[in-house]
Specification:
Radius of gyration: 20 Å
Number of strands: 5
Largest sheet: 5 strands, parallel
Strand content: 5-15%
Strand order of the largest sheet: 2-3-1-4-5
CATH topology: Rossmann fold
CATH architecture: 3-Layer(aba) Sandwich
Shape: globular
CATH class: Alpha Beta
Number of domains: 1
CATH superfamily: P-loop containing nucleotide triphosphate hydrolases
Bound molecules: adenosine monophosphate, magnesium ion
């Protein structure tokens, strides 16, 4: 899965990353779903252990173009995990109160505690993506944020947080199909926002903003992965695999039981 990881210092050109790539798996969609199911069972076990040990903190950042599959990833990859230890924080347009503070203020309080996995559905990266594309603050303000973000994530890492950042990479054509499906299917219409069409017109600006973010903020302590996301089954497989491998590498242990449990008789 290292093939999808951005090495620190790389200048990312998204045109060189195929959103329909499936080179890490040799089978078809059904076979992939079977493997993903096994990974999902393994993730459940690892999450239980993470929660029991209550030592590590895990932060997962999801970013994508609109319709990129952030919601679907949360639904499928974390299916069956224990809601007690898995949190989702979704970052919307900031409120007036949030805007009255620095941009990391609303983010920091949602970072995971010991034993928790927190998924950021959008994140502080919006402050160098939508904010940059729409000039919501001047360039001399947003351009400093890449360094802030690296330092912020370094604090989290130094204090025991494992950070994984996934850019769900879809093609413009795939976005067209997904937006069309949101128009056509009644149970998907709630997800359609007319604003998504004006954002789509800025596709190239978003590509530029994502390339800058991926280039400047993939670090040893908080790596970015570019996930081929045109095929949902492949996206779920790759993210599940990276998660399971990462959690397994933490070498977690269940806490020591209290002494002399064998001699206890419950009356
Ligand atoms: P959704 O995820 O579809 O519910 O949409 C959330 C919206 O909030 C998106 O249009 C984001 O671009 C927007 N958003 C999130 N964070 C920020 C931010 N820091 N500044 C401006 N807009 C934001
Ligand atoms: Mg939306």
């Amino acid at each position: 899965m290292n093939r999808y990881r951005i090495q620190p210092g790389t200048v990312v050109d998204l045109a060189a990353w195929d959103p329909a790539d499936r080179s890490a798996f040799d089978g078809d969609k059904d076979a992939a779903r079977g493997v993903t199911k096994e990974l999902n069972n393994r993730l459940e076990e690892l999450q239980e252990l993470l929660y029991a040990e209550a030592k590590h903190k895990v932060l997962i950042v999801l970013q994508a173009m609109d319709t990129g599959g952030k919601d679907g990833t949360i639904r499928h990859v974390f299916d069956g995990t224990n809601p007690q230890g898995v949190k989702v924080a979704s970052f919307k347009k900031p409120t007036e109160w949030e805007l009255a503070h620095d941009y990391l203020w609303r983010v920091h309080r949602h970072t995971p505690g010991a034993g928790e996995i927190t998924i950021f559905n959008r994140s502080h990266y919006e402050d160098v993506l939508v904010v940059r594309v729409h000039n919501l603050v001047p360039p001399d303000v947003w351009s400093k944020r890449y360094d802030h973000i690296n330092a912020f994530e370094r604090i989290l890492f130094d204090e025991g947080t494992t950070i994984l950042k996934f850019f769900l990479h879809i093609s413009k054509e795939e976005q067209r199909e997904r937006l069309q499906a949101r128009l056509d299917e009644p149970h998907k219409q709630w997800k359609f926002a007319k604003g998504d069409l004006s954002e789509r017109k800025r596709w190239d600006d978003y590509v530029g903003a994502f390339e800058a973010a991926l280039s400047k903020t993939s670090t040893e302590w908080a790596p970015w992965y570019v996930i081929p996301a045109d095929r949902k089954w492949y996206r779920n497989l790759v993210i599940s695999k990276i998660l399971v491998d990462t959690l397994a590498s933490l070498d977690m242990q269940y806490p020591e039981p209290e002494e002399d449990l064998e001699s206890i008789v419950i009356e």
